[in-house]
Design goal:
Helix content: 55-70%
Number of helices: 11
GO molecular function, one term: sequence-specific DNA binding
CATH class of the largest domain: Mainly Alpha
Keywords: DNA-binding, Transcription, Transcription regulation
Order of helices and strands: HHHHHHHHHHH
InterPro entries: AraC_XylS_family_regulators (IPR050204), Homeodomain-like_sf (IPR009057), HTH_AraC (IPR018060), HTH_AraC-typ_CS (IPR018062)
Number of domains: 3
Distance between the termini: 46 Å
CATH architecture of the largest domain: Orthogonal Bundle
Shape: elongated
CATH superfamily of the largest domain: Homeodomain-like
Protein name: HTH araC/xylS-type domain-containing protein
CATH topology of the largest domain: Arc Repressor Mutant, subunit A
Largest sheet: none
Domain HTH araC/xylS-type: 87-185
Number of strands: 0
Strand content: under 5%
Length: 188
Amino acid sequence: MIGRPVASWVRFSLGLDLCASAGRSWLAAVQLLLTGLDTEHSLVRDSASYREQLELLVIDSLLRAQWHDHSDELHEERPPVRPRTVKRVVDALERAPEEPWSLPQMAQVAAVSTRRLQQGFREHLGMSPSVYLRTLRLDRVHRDLLAGADSVTDVAYRWGFTHLGRFAVAYRERFGQAPSETLRHGTG
């Protein structure tokens, strides 16, 4: 919830105000869980995934309702975390941007439809998955050219660009110069 692992116990202050809005919300979550556990053939008793979701609700609402040693960090404004579907694909693309990724393959990694994957990328990264991949590849090419590695053609092919004309146009749009200029001036 705070964007990083917590290595120690969470220390709560004593006394949760159950009359305050946050305290009432936590109590309602606990009562929902307890009612389900007390009722025969309820979703809580019959469905482990439903029970786990309610347990997470109880924990989440407690962490938000009661002051603890991470409260300040929890309540500070931060950019939203990318959803797991987008993160899975971003991680896979960053591990192997040179692979010939197709949109269906990316969607398979995320375990969502291609349409949902595209929506997620637009919502959270402001671009489509293919634009993200092209940008990632261009950045890798740029890094290699600055280091003076190989020829422009070899570097472009290494990072998955198969159409050199489109590659050169995209490179110039991103970096404001031709790839050969970057190679020529990179190490100097």
